[in-house]
Specification:
Blueprint: H1 4-10, H2 19-23, E1 27-32, H3 39-43, H4 47-55, E2 58-64, H5 65-77, H6 80-92, E3 97-99, H7 110-121, E4 124-126, H8 130-138, E5 143-147, E6 151-155
Parallel strand pairs: 1-2, 1-4, 2-3, 4-5
Antiparallel strand pairs: 5-6
């Protein structure tokens, strides 16, 4: 028979593992917006490790092909520090899986594509765009964002 302390750390008295061990083994989809990839350059924050720590799960970082097009365009056309930020964002995109936009949403704006894809996938939207965050939250989509130029936080709950 397990003591109370052993039950809390190893499972219940029947030898069943705790539920939280299963939750941590779930992979959550994080759909990344362009401005989220500029955070490391602007504020020296590791968005990937911070996101994993906040979500306490394995994370599958995804960038829509339309967002990649936007980053590529901005890396070429932006000036000064912005241009460098978008070039860093291009490098950071290598840590993400590029996903083609579904035909059903391909005619929508990039922001609408982000919301629709995240909602359909049951994922988390990673953005610092205030309007996009508000729209996502009104749809019940959890949002990862930068707070106080110091740390990432999660608004909403991950199911």
């Amino acid at each position: 028979m397990l003591s109370d302390a052993e039950s809390r750390t190893n499972g219940d008295s029947l030898g069943m593992p705790k539920l939280e061990k299963f939750v941590r083994n779930v992979t959550i989809l994080v759909v990344v917006d362009t401005n989220f990839l500029t955070i490391p350059y602007q504020f020296n924050i590791d968005i990937f490790s911070e996101s994993k720590m906040i979500l306490e799960q394995r994370v599958d970082f995804v960038i829509l092909s339309s967002v990649m097009d936007e980053i590529n365009r901005l890396a070429e056309t932006a000036k000064g520090n912005d241009r460098h930020a978008f070039r860093v964002a291009l490098e950071l995109a290598d840590n993400c899986r590029i996903v083609d936009v579904q035909d059903a949403i391909s005619e929508l704006s990039v922001d609408d594509q982000l919301i629709e894809h995240t909602a359909q996938a049951g994922g988390v939207l990673a953005t610092n765009d205030k309007e996009l965050r508000a729209r996502a939250r009104s749809r019940g989509i959890p949002v990862l964002l930068l707070r106080g130029k110091k740390r990432l936080v999660l608004e909403g709950e991950v199911s």
